[in-house]
Specification:
There is one protein chain. By secondary structure, this protein is of the alpha+beta class. The chain is 33% helix and 20% strand. The strands form six sheets. The protein has a five-stranded antiparallel beta sheet with strand order 8-7-9-15-10. A hairpin with a 6-residue loop joins β1 (3-7) and β2 (14-20). It starts with a strand and ends with a helix. The relative contact order is 0.18. Bound molecules: ligand EPS. The site of ligand EPS has 17 residues, from α5. InterPro entries: Chorismate_synth, Chorismate_synth_AroC_sf, Chorismate_synthase_CS.
Length: 378
Amino acid sequence: MLYFKTAGESHGKCLVAMIEGFPSGVFIDEAVINKEMKRRQGGLGRGGRMQIEEDRVEILSGIRKNITLGSPICLMIKNSDYKIDELPAVTRPRPGHADLAGVLKYNLKDARNILERASARETAARVAVGAVAKILLSLFGIGIFGYVKGIGGIHSDKFLKDIDVAEKIREKSSVYCIDQDIEGKIIEKIQQTAEKGDSLGGVVEVIAYGLPVGLGSHTQWDLRLDARLAGALMSVQAIKGVELGLGCNVANRFGSEVHDEIFYEKPKQGKSVTGGFKRMTNNAGGIEGGISNGEPIIVRAYMKPIPTLKKPLRSVDLLTKEPITATYERSDVCAVPAASVVCESMIAFEIARAFLEKFGKDSIDEVKRNFEGYLSGF
Ligand code: EPS
């Protein structure tokens, strides 16, 4: 089974990720991973740390001469801001961060020992993993695209069917959105929020396209693809809600307005990832009964504002138990653009995992044979 774990503290020596269960024979271009690393570092609203770091991945194992070996892949990202042993203790927990619950659970007096690991810096390792997953998926015509739908209540429901066009717009946008009408307002809001010493959250959307019908399964609760994708996104720091397709709005509509009617068109040539069945709408967001139905998977994640505030909230000192304001550490005003890259990576990984479950995993040739054989059975 494909899985990964990460290790590392925000100001420790490095972050590492270990991926197991990845097939042999896949060409991995480090430059492709590093492009994603750079994208995660960007976006308006980031704090000073991103000026210090230049996140680059170093491959420690599992890849030889750019080709995966089928053995564990270990990826490392060095921290330029390595100073964990010199950093002061944190005894004024920040509301909204892991500080308080963490020290109580682990019987510690210094929240530094919690926040160093809880920090979203860890997502750099996840993005490296996601980039490797995306390389695998691209061999089967599957793409994953994430972007910002809204920040601080400024929201756009603009949908671009052409992902190439959307990608070009996103690349030019300092807040990774695809609607130029809201971009200016978002930029202004981030700047005003920074001046006020506050922070902002937002909404990101991830679209997975080109994937075949049949990933995930209705047969068991923990095999359902929608549950797995939601879990993967909820694991991202600061994500508080996830929805698929029409999302929470389905609760307010009639069944006839929600479900996507089924049509059939004989595939013209070659094999179709849906066997020729198609929909005119995609309210389900590409998953029915916990199984991918061949339509694009559309999933949104809702991010809370970052809890580290220049104008800190009220807290209590861990040692004296006296009321005091929370610690302020250098932080981001808004990291929603970065979160869109992280969410994209988590979706890529979870889809790659479901894909390898379905099509076998030891070598890429075996996976390709199984994939082709499956499609020819429709
Ligand atoms: C982050 C690095 C961190 C923060 C941010 C994410 O750097 P530092 O703490 O040294 O300024 O910018 O972390 C948080 C917002 C958080 O709450 O921990 C990164 O690499 O993404």
